[in-house]
Design goal:
The chain is of the alpha/beta class. Helix content is 29%, strand content 15%. The chain contains 7 helices and 9 strands. A 4-stranded parallel beta sheet has the order 3-4-5-6. A 3-stranded parallel beta sheet has the order 7-8-9, with no helix packed on it. Strands 1-2 form a two-stranded antiparallel ribbon. Helix 5 links the parallel strand 7 and strand 8. The longest helix has 20 residues. It is globular and about 40 Å long. It starts with 19 loop residues before the first strand and ends with a helix.
Length: 216
């Protein structure tokens, strides 16, 4: 990475050549023609430790602190991503009641990392994350329509209130992006997904919690 005379806290190299969309200025991902539905997905920490199949897409469905180095030094991990089939963009936290500015920033980082990896020839699937309906104005920005996207239910559908909020965001995502396929990391109960079965093709991938606790 070329050094600059100023403190580039947002790592401008990630978005060189990007188009920015919306009032929040979210980087637009490029077309996703080189992407396919993954045979497997693997958490970043497992891939980093050399314990993941090379035929997997690396994902970030974990606490933010475990993938913070990727956000601050994405270029250092290119070799790791290139060893695998592809990557799912970072799942930066977005919570109900969280500052709008912070949520927009986390959406920006999600797309910025994805755009940079795309420029390096790495197949990228955008992870879509929302909080409540107020986030819908920016949380879908920067993602091309009619491609593959990924979401996670892990920790997001425990209570009835969480399920209703998740369903609202899922419907908005399907309406806005019209994805041909949706990867689902975690549980996929009919009470949440049943009414959307005709919208797209869903592909479920068990979370690490499910795998380690022997739950389906």
């Amino acid at each position: 990475m070329k050094k600059t005379p100023y403190d580039d806290g947002f790592h401008q190299y990630l978005v060189e050549g990007a188009i920015f969309v919306g009032e929040a200025g979210i980087p637009m991902l490029m077309d996703l023609d080189n992407v396919q539905v993954p045979k497997e997905i693997a958490p970043f920490d497992k891939a980093r430790a050399g314990k993941a199949s090379k035929k997997s897409y690396i994902h970030f469905y974990m606490h933010d602190k475990y993938f913070a180095p990727v956000l601050s030094a994405t270029d250092r991990y290119l070799d790791l991503f290139k060893e695998h089939d592809g990557a799912i963009t970072p799942d930066c936290t977005m919570l109900i009641g969280q500052s709008k500015c912070l949520q927009e920033t986390n959406t920006y980082l999600n797309r910025a990392v994805g755009f940079y990896l795309q420029k390096q020839g790495i197949p990228v699937i955008p992870n879509i994350r929302w909080s409540d309906e107020r986030s819908f104005e920016y949380c879908f920005l920067g993602v091309p329509k009619h491609y593959i996207v990924s979401i996670s239910t892990h920790g997001c559908i425990r209570s009835m209130q969480q399920k209703e909020c998740f369903k609202s965001g899922l419907y908005a995502m399907l309406e806005n992006l019209e994805p041909k396929d949706v990867l689902v990391h975690g549980y996929m109960p009919d009470t949440v997904f049943g009414e959307f079965a005709e919208y797209t093709n869903f592909h479920r991938y068990p979370s690490v919690f499910e795998q380690t606790h022997g739950k389906g």
